[in-house]
Structure formats: C-alpha cells, structure tokens
Request: fold
Amino acid sequence: MARQIEFHNPPTLMKAVGYTHGVVSQGGRILFFAGQVAKDKDGQTVGKGDIVAQFRQVCENLRTVVTAAGGQLTDVVKLTIYVLDANEYRRQGKAIGGVYREYFGRHFPAMTLVGARDLYDASDGCMIEIDGFASLS
Reply:
C-alpha cells in the first residue's frame, strides 16, 4: 500500500499558520526521532546564545536523521519544539521561519511549541530541542 498523508485544518478551528492542526498517515513506516539539539557531529554546541543559528543546526540534524532512514523532511508529520525562552523564539520568528523554509519549504506538519524551564543540554548552551516523527514510504 502506498503511503498517504492527509492534512486536516478544520474550518471550525482557528486558521493554522505555519503548522497543521492534524495529520493522518496511512501505510508506510513511522520514524520516531529523538530530541535533536544544536550539536554538530563532534558533540559541540553550535550557535551558543543565538536561537536562529541553533534552529538551523537542529534542522540540519533532523534532515540527517530522516534521510538516514530513507525519507525526506516533507515526510515529517509531527514536530514538538522545546525552547528555554518562548518570547525569544517569538521575537526571532521571522528569521526562524526563513530557516524553516530553507529546510522544509512550504511543508507544515502538526507542530507544538513548548516553553521549557530546562533542557538536558542547556548546561552546554543549547536553547532549543525538537523531536517528532515522520511517515516514510
């Protein structure tokens, strides 16, 4: 059976801008990926103090995980974004959106943004972590 992804944005909910309210995946395989932070392959934190640079590194890490499993970023159906400072994320929203489009284009999976009091790698300078899953054919 071929994989099918259906995006659901019911008209009775507020308009989804930059995300999708719900995604139904039928067929294929599901890749669950662990929280990715702004660390390079050597374990060094990229962009300390710069949430946009860190978002770019996280997207690069996400692409690496998804492509290693035989998929592409447009196969991602859910992202949960954890940030230490939701207001800073919001202030940098335009720049973060530009980076997002470089990696995902106009593909908007279901997304949640969570302001967190702490992240496991915060002591290493990480300000953001993203986990989620993808539906692979």
In short: The domain at 28-136 is CATH 3.30.1330.40 (60s Ribosomal Protein L30; Chain: A;). The CA atoms of residues 18 and 97 lie 8 Å apart.
